[in-house]
Amino acid sequence: MSRKPIIAGNWKMNKTVKEAHEFVEAVKDKVPSADLVDSVVAAPFLALDRLVADAKGSDLKISAENVHFENSGAFTGEVSPVMLEDLGVQYAIIGHSERRAMFAETDETVNKKVLASFAHHLIPIVCVGETLDEREGGKWQSVVKNQVTKAFAGVPSDQAADVVVAYEPIWAIGTGKSASSDDANEVCAYIRKTVADLYDETVAAKVRIQYGGSVKPATIGDLLAQSDIDGALVGGASLQPESFLALLDAVKG
């Protein structure tokens, strides 16, 4: 079946609110139609309120870079799905490798965040991926399968079809290295098979799977030409309007 591509820029800890506003003003009227591709920017929490307002009426969608799994409570410094829903945020990145490595994110908290996101009308972008040691040791299948299986635990099939999975080989994030398009597609196809095993082929055929890891306008075309890669989660190349729009143009082209 044909799946609509999704390109999401993950800004990480970059841009002031003013800089984020200027970026969205520069791209919002230039992104392709939402009939062709879902164009998403994931911004720091401080900018989300402004960006949702800026992007209103356009085909640009706004994502959070993280979300807590509780609705409220004594969780200093955290942001709840209730708060994001109230702002009108549409997506939330969950389980990014940086969150796993530096902020104690686990497969269990990833699952809790997925369930909480759906409860508050947020589409989760779930990140999975192996380290260089795990890839070279031939363990990537078991690592990725475990991450996907735990992330989808308790998610009903109708919601599962809406999950976006971002395959990010950890060794390719911010390093300038990138998996070959064939290698990336092999893992994305394996992720789809894992979803099919958890649900069925119909659900698996609907799930969109992104590749993330040093994606650039020059490389995205080869990735999107693959059978099981439905888009990209992009870091550095999403920080400049021209580069972000070039990524989207590759989808149109």
Automatic annotation (TrEMBL):
It is found in: Cytoplasm. Pathway: Carbohydrate degradation; glycolysis; D-glyceraldehyde 3-phosphate from glycerone phosphate: step 1/1; Carbohydrate biosynthesis; gluconeogenesis. The keyword Isomerase applies. Its EC number is 5.3.1.1. GO terms for molecular function: triose-phosphate isomerase activity. It is an enzyme of class 5 (isomerase). The active site is at H96, E168. Homodimer. Belongs to the triosephosphate isomerase family. This is Triosephosphate isomerase.
